[in-house]
Amino acid sequence: MGTTFKGAIDDQAAIDAVLRKKKPVAVYRHLDAALFGGYLPFTPYKDLVNRRVHPFDSIAVSGHKFFGFDEPMGIFITTKKTLKNTNPFKVAYLNGAVPTITCSRNALSALKFWWKIQKTGMKGFEEQAQAILANAQYLEDQLNEIGYAAWQDDHSNTVYFRRPSEAMMKKYVLAPDYDTRLGGNLAHIIVMQHLTREVIDQFVEDLKKDRR
Ligand SMILES: Cc1ncc(COP(=O)(O)O)c(C=O)c1O
Q1: Does ligand 1 come within 6 angstroms of the Cβ of 33?
Q2: 164 lines ligand 1 (CB under 6 A)
Q3: Ligand 1 pocket test target in 6, 48, 65 with most atoms within 8 Å of CB
Q4: Which of 25, 73, 116, 133 is placed for a possible disulfide with 63 were both Cys, Cβ 3.0 to 4.6 Å?
Q5: Looking at residue 207, what DSSP letter applies?
Q6: Where along the chain do its domains lie?
Q7: Is 5 within 8 Å of 188 (Cβ atoms)?
Q8: How far, in Å, is the centroid of ligand 1 from the Cα of 62?
Q9: What does pTM read for this prediction?
Q10: Are 154 and 44 contacting, i.e. CB atoms less than 8 angstroms apart?
Q11: Mean pLDDT throughout 83-103?
């Protein structure tokens, strides 16, 4: 649910259809929504992470991406049925089974998440989600305007494009990738809350000079 470099999303409706048709004996459907799971619930694409629409078993979302926490943390949401079947192994010295992800017993992280949810509120998250998608679209539009090969999907805050010079890669700390289908060397920008239109404009100006 939002691949690391290009921000691709698996076609959930197609997965539903295959599962309905094939009826496999056992399926565990997990959504790795590390970045996108933070903002999709506040966009028109919210059904992608709604298990009443696409019946997945669990979803994981990072705390240090969209939510902007200063240390690695995340949320894992699952069904009671799944939780009941997790790690039934009873540890003698704990006098029970431990239904947590290994080492995820940091109570402060849960408290920080609670604080963030209270402080930002649904409206705040909605504004942030809209802003990053609008700015990602703006970046793609600006690149298209100067005839620079760039791609972005409507649900994605990631814009990827032909890789510029080493100097540009260094100045903007861009991540590299490679795809022969798109002409070879690529770079991307993940448009987060702090990325303003001024910075985008500056980037596009620099790119124009860089290309010359
Ligand atoms: C799709 C995807 N899954 C998982 C991760 C890793 O998440 P975490 O840092 O919470 O382990 C990333 C990026 O870091 C990612 O892009």
Answers
A1: no
A2: no
A3: 65
A4: 73
A5: H
A6: 12-120, 124-211
A7: yes
A8: 7
A9: 0.91
A10: no
A11: 75
Amino acid letter, 153 = D
| Fold entry, domain 124-211 | Aspartate Aminotransferase, domain 1 (3.90.1150)
What is the C-alpha to C-alpha distance for residues 101 and 35, in angstroms, rounded to an integer? 19
Phi, psi angle pair for 89, to nearest 5°? -70, 120
- The C-alpha atoms of residue 137 and residue 84 are separated, in whole angstroms, by 43
Query: Which helix or strand (DSSP H or E) is residue 111 part of?
Result: helix 107-145
Is pLDDT of 99 > 80? Answer: no
Alpha carbons 152 and 160: distance in angstroms, whole number: 7
Ligand 1 site-directed mutation target among 3, 4, 158, most atoms within 8 Å of CB: 4
- Taking CA atoms only, the protein residue closest to ligand 1 atom 3 is 34
Which residue, among 37, 95, 31, 98, has the nearest Cα to 64 in the 3D structure? Answer: 37
